[in-house]
Amino acid sequence: xxxxxxxxxxxxxxxxxxxxxxxxxxxxxxxxxxxxxxxxxxxxxxxxxxxxxxxxxxxxxxxxxxxxxxxxxxxxxxxxxxxxxxxxxxxxxxxxxxxxxxxxxxxxxxxxxxxxxxxxxxxxxxxxxxxxxxxxxxxxxxxxxxxxxxxxxxxxxxxxxxxxxxxxxxxxxxxxxxxxxxxxxxx
Length: 187
Description:
This protein has 187 residues and is an alpha+beta fold. It has two domains: 43-155, no CATH class; 156-187. It has five helices and ten strands. It has helices at residues 43-63, 70-79, 90-95, 118-123, 156-181; strands at 3-6, 11-15, 21-25, 87-88, 98-100, 107-110, 114-115, 139-140, 143-148, 152-154. Strands 1-2-3 form a three-stranded antiparallel sheet, with no helix packed on it. The chain has a three-stranded antiparallel sheet with strand order 4-9-6. Strands 5-10 form a two-stranded antiparallel ribbon. It starts with a strand and ends in a 6-residue tail after the last helix.
């Protein structure tokens, strides 16, 4: 096979079977832009897009007053089923004495809105105007991750500690009641 190099486009051209030209174009860091289709999205970006799509579909239910918030609508119409009834953050489950099982995937909701930082505002080339034609401070809605009751277990240590504490408390109460009822024990 014969190889020739075209200096202007840095292409390698080979002659394949039946003298057909085969081009193996080499990309250089100077003249290549990533193709949007070829760039893989991170799981969080995919989750955000899905959350946006679901939220857009449920917006009308919130406007009609069937649900107070988009998150309420998401939980009641999309996430809730026979197994998944109660949704809380990891921190809330932990506070209540539960542990989210390893490997469980969170349900995604919208977090509390945050105002953009001055650096982020500088990047915003098209600021929105409110009714008074003043620049509106844009907000960013982060994603919040919640787990359902079907994804958690009661912490074993919590059970052991609460059982032993209850047992000690019961013994102390029993001892006090015996001392109170038996005058000879109190001497």
